[in-house]
Specification:
This protein is mostly helical and 90 residues long. It is 84% helix and 0% strand. It is built from three helices and no strands. The longest helix has 41 residues. The radius of gyration is 19 Å and the shape is flat.
């Protein structure tokens, strides 16, 4: 069986993932990450330790993606607040 994730396909996979999550707000991604952490802790308490570990490991990249998208939104909002002030001062 051929390994589908190799150096040649890595760029295509990255572009595909970025296109799929482009329309999802950063806040929803962060809420999903928090939900996966809560689900992981619940599964850990009920005795499903392997499943809890797998879901917990998936939540960290989701948090990173959500923070990156949310940071971009905050940066654009800050820039939009600063632009009118510069126009008024001139």
């Amino acid at each position: 069986m051929e390994n589908l994730i190799n150096q040649e396909n890595l760029e295509d996979i990255r572009v595909l993932i970025e296109n799929k999550i482009a329309d999802i707000p950063g806040e929803l991604i962060l809420f999903g990450a928090i939900g996966s952490l809560l689900l992981s802790s619940y599964l850990n308490k009920t005795g499903n330790k392997k499943t809890a570990s797998m879901i917990g490991q998936l939540s960290l990249p989701i948090i990173g993606i959500g923070i990156a998208k949310y940071k971009d939104v905050l940066k654009s909002q800050i820039e939009s607040f600063q632009e009118p002030e510069n126009e008024v001062a001139q």
